[in-house]
Amino acid sequence: LHSKLPEVGTTIFTVMSALAAEVGAVNLGQGFPDFDCDPALVEAVYQAMRAGHNQYPPMPGVPALRSAVASKIEALHGRKYSADSEITITAGATQAILTAILACVRPGDEVIVLEPCYDSYAPNIALAGGTVVRVPLTPGSFRPDFDKIAAALSPRTRALLINSPHNPSATVWSAQDMLTLQELLAPTDVLLISDEVYEHMVFDGAEHQSAARFAGLAARAFIVSSFGKTFHVTGWKVGTVAAPAALTAEFRKVHQFNVFTVNTPMQHGLASYLQNPAPYLQLPAFYQAKRDLFRAGLAGSRLRLLPCAGSYFQCVDISAVSDLSEADFCQWLTREIGVAAIPLSAFYGDGFDQRVVRFCFAKKDETLRLALQRLRKL
Ligand code: PMP
Ligand code: GLN
């Protein structure tokens, strides 16, 4: 068979989770909570199933959930999206991003990604026949480099993919960053795919600057989110896309022949659970406490902590601890020390190795303490 993705193997997240399970390591690799979601959310889904919400929902999603999402965006970011024509419920952010790319990228189009970036972006662009244009984030700080983004724009640029809060670097774009981007894109017709799955994990009193807050960005943006991250249910695979009606119409043409619809009872359960904003409003404090516990535990070690402004990831520089490559270090750390991590090189097209690895702190405090006990030996 002539592979469409010859360079793609099994994702690093699957590989490291399998290794962690095999050797019994604490798994701080793949990003998912090791604690359960709110029982009230499970109860809401159970009630939906009991009420008979078990057949296909409308193609764009259960209306009550689309309305709840539109209200939430309006309350948090001040922009009104039509639940009918501008919000679509997806099978997680992964399907949302692929569908947005398939809907707008033609063979030969260029799509700019900012490296390091989530591992699905480049293969998604390749599947659409597009050309991946990789622009590095500023080395060290992982801040956007707008001169480099400007230099990468060409008449063939169809879309730009951004992600704040950022996986893996845990940086968060400021309002000024978004304004600068808005100005940069103003003279172009470049579309924006804004991956905002960690929208509710922004720390130290800062606010998430959704593309929805900036008229010039919102007008060209597919804004992607995921209930898996926000409500500790990564296995449910339910996400959302907010986009202006014309973009949503194109998105839905692909969506209807891709998954057609997303599971019904989860959508009803999420719609009723979203009526109470407390769970997502409490999320920054919840994860900030875990970040602080994890950082305090590593403070005296030879792993150098990088800043963590958002997301549920903490990156560390390993150069004082080991001469191994990031990938080999993660293998060694999992097998010999009993803690799994993810090498940042997995987020680069060319496997760039800067001696930094990523830990996920979306774990019970006791899990973090056990990992810290082991990591402090380094
Ligand atoms: N984008 C980023 C940046 C992610 O980290 C993830 C998942 N970890 C996704 C998208 C995919 O989200 P989902 O599980 O909802 O498909
Ligand atoms: N997004 C999660 C991470 O970065 C993992 C999702 C996956 O396994 N594909 O760890």
Account of the 3D structure:
It holds the Pfam family Aminotran_1_2. It comes from Extensimonas vulgaris. GO terms for molecular function: kynurenine-oxoglutarate transaminase activity; pyridoxal phosphate binding. Keywords: Aminotransferase, Pyridoxal phosphate, Transferase. This protein has helices at residues 12-23, 39-50, 63-77, 92-104, 121-127, 146-152, 175-185, 215-218, 227-230, 245-255, 264-273, 278-281, 283-298, 326-337, 365-375, and strands spanning 26-27, 87-90, 110-115, 131-136, 157-163, 191-195, 221-226, 239-242, 304-305, 313-317, 339-340, 342-343, 356-360. It is of the alpha/beta class. It has 2 domains: 12-30 and 282-375, Aspartate Aminotransferase, domain 1 (Alpha-Beta Complex), CATH 3.90.1150.10; 39-278, Aspartate Aminotransferase, domain 2 (3-Layer(aba) Sandwich), CATH 3.40.640.10. The strands form 3 sheets. The protein has a 7-stranded mixed beta sheet, with helices on both faces. Strands 9-10-13-12 form a 4-stranded antiparallel beta sheet. Helix 5 (121-127) links the parallel strand 3 and strand 4. Helix 3 (63-77) runs parallel beside helix 11, helix 4 runs parallel beside helix 5 and helix 13 (283-298) packs parallel to helix 15. The termini are far apart. The mean pLDDT is 97. Glutamine is lined by residues 11, 13, 30-31, 167. Residues 11, 13, 30-31, 167 line the site of glutamine (GLN).
